[in-house]
Amino acid sequence: MMNTEDGLMTSSDSSTLQKKAKWVWRETLKVHRRAPETRLASSLSPVEIFVALYYGGVLRYDPQNPQSQARDRCIISKGHGSICMYPILADLGFFPVAELEKVCEAGSFLGGIPDPIIPGYETVNGSLGHGMGVGAGMALGLKGKKSDCNVFVVTGDGELHEGANWEAFMFASHHRLDNLHLIIDDNQISMLGSTDNIVSHDSLSDRLQSFGWDCAEVDGHDVVAVREALMRMKIQSMGKPKALIARTKKGHGVPSLEGAELSHVMSLKPELIDSLLEANP
Amino acid sequence: MSVRPIAMRDAFLDRICRAMAEDDQIFFTTADFGSPVVDRIREQFPKRYVNVGIAEQNLINVSAGLAIEGYKVFAYAIAPFITMRCYEQIRVNLALLSEVRPINVNLIGVGAGYSYVVSGPTHQCYEDLAIMRALPNVTIYSPSDHIVASALFDRCLENTGPKYLRFDAQVLPVLYEPGLPDLDRGFNVHRSDGNICFVATGYMVHTALKVADQLASAGVSIGVVDLFDISGYAADQLQAVLKPYDGIVTMEEGFHGCGGVDAMMFEFIARRGLSTRMLNIGVERGYRFELGTRTDLHEQVGIGVQAVTKSVTEFVQTISV
Q: Domain spans of chain B?
């Protein structure tokens, strides 16, 4: 882990993060090759978000004690779209790397949708729209305990159609939960196509600000920029909850998935994965 | 001196308020639902009281988050709203998550059955026992007076899983004076006469006792069991109590034949190999908009004292044949 205090990046840190993002992207493809039931496209859009959180010195965590009271809480609300977390958690020592060979196999704890039996996962993530409210409750509880731990919630943008999120947005700003951080993986594609064509939430930043949140936007595939935005967000304590809208591409790095309306349900053939891995060493 | 009956919620909330003074791990949440005791909690413990507004989904989610952080949470709202408006939140963040870690969230639902008499079917609650008992890991309590309701508070601290407390909105007569029933057993035998036995819950225990009185005066003796722990009653002991009876009459202020106490007792009898015959008294399926007293409404839907007396009289005759 990098220094969590100074918030500055050196060029070698930036290079390390970029290399790690590429490694996670490749490992996610390999997991999907072995377990085509996994949601690949929605797991490729947040790669840089999770790399910045876990390798960029943003989150405090202890792989040997995942429930340590001193940890920052990371709620991965878009559960199905976080298969990229499997290689990250294995790499960090939350569980043995060998477990990655068994994803979706009988007896494995690594399923098509992550469950809270996985070390490092905090809550139930299969059903969408729950993480924000639970995260708000945790943030309120941490404030009550005078803890300096932070709560990070990662959602998709399609998931924001669930109304419970907006109940939680109102709640969080009312209670001035500035220990609560929302990162939206804004890939703008839901299961059946563009979110704009389903129920648009354009001007998401304006909407969140009107709900009393501080809001920033970032290129969600520039891991260094994501890391810097998260560090800035983390050190702000202005009595407001904070949101980062990460503009991403669903299926990032895979030409046949990027921009495809139905990418959410698309699997890649092994030979295509092999060629992608060969072309992106 | 006899105990003055009070509302179940007042008795239970008073226990919460007093305990909050001693235990800073107790947190109270409400979906904009109040009472004089809630006012006291808000005034005395403002940092452990939160009103999420009319937002039951968020009530459950925030309560779950607080429980993850170690709090013993009491979430308070009207019964149909705290069970049905947010059922998926209960399923996912209470029932399911409690498979892997303690989630001590206690759902206090006020307004069992028809107890919000003039408010109509949105505020009345006939489905909750069935849907809540479909969830693993959720303890369900359905007390029949404020004495038991108050005593159940201790269980809420001891048992670290999620719970649903189904409280009547009206003040019901005191049944447990002097002395509490055995809470571990989860049920209480009020009468053990005759060859037919009522297994009733909540308000319907009072109806069962009235019907039993009425039939006793006609020379028919009937047993009465108050089932207040719907999910955790002592099954062996209940079997021992019910085994001598030729017939069991279930009584609930909930829809008939929809998975409530009637279905539970069918399953119990089948699993235990009892040969007992059964009559189920519950609300006729359907939503009604008629106004009237609770007694009137109960008679209309087949669960009033007169309607039950008639049904049970016919049932007794079939058993005797």
A: 8-167, 187-320
| Segments forming the whole domain that contains residue A98 | 11-279
Whether the pLDDT of residue A234 is over 50: the answer is yes
Partner A contacted by B88 (CB < 8 A): yes
Q: How many CA atoms lie within 13 A of B308 on its CB side?
A: 30
> Please, what are the averages of pLDDT over each run of 10 residues along chain B (321 residues)?
91 98 98 97 98 98 98 98 98 98 98 95 96 98 98 96 98 93 96 95 98 95 97 97 96 97 96 94 94 96 97 91 60
Q: Count of domains in chain A? A: 1
Q: Cβ of A180 under 8 Å from any chain B Cβ?
A: no
- The Cα diameter of chain A in Å comes to 53
* Interface contact flag, B89 A164, Cβ < 8 Å: yes
Name the H helices within A47-120: 47-55, 85-92
pLDDT in tens, A129-158: 999 999 999 999 999 999 999 999 999 999
Q: Does a structural domain hold residue A2?
A: no
Owner of token pair 């085509």: A36
B31: distance to nearest CA of chain A, Å?
Answer: 12
Phi, psi of B80 (to 5 degrees): -65, -30
Cα angle value A66/A140/A160 (rounded, 5°): 85
pLDDT tens digits, residue range A3-13? Answer: 445 556 777 78
Q: How near does any CA of chain A get to the CA of B260, in Å?
A: 27
Put simply, whether A140 touches B (Cβ < 8 Å) is: yes
Could you write out the DSSP letters of every residue in A91-107?
Answer: HHTSS-GGGGGGTTSTT
**Of B258, B77, B89, B54, nearest to B165 (Cα)?**
B77
- For testing the chain B interface, which of A117, A128, A134 should be mutated: the one with the most B CBs within 10 Å? A134
Residue A141's CATH number: 3.40.50.970
For tokens 């709202």, the residue is: B77
The beta-carbon neighbor of B58 closest among A127, A141, A168 is A168
- A234: nearest Cα among A149, A161, A160, A156: A149
Interface size A-B, in CB pairs within 8 Å, comes to 95
Domain B8-167 has CATH 3.40.50.1980: no
Residue A133 to residue B48, Cβ atoms within 8 A: no
Chain B residue at shortest CA distance from A70:
B69
Q: Considering only CB atoms, which chain B residues are within 8 Å of A114? A: none
Which of the listed CATH numbers 3.30.750.24, 3.30.420.40, 3.40.50.920, 3.40.50.720 matches domain B187-320?
Answer: 3.40.50.920
- What's the complex ipTM? 0.95
Contacts of B60 in chain A (CB under 8 A): 133
Cα of A171 to nearest chain B Cα, Å: 7
pLDDT at A1: 46
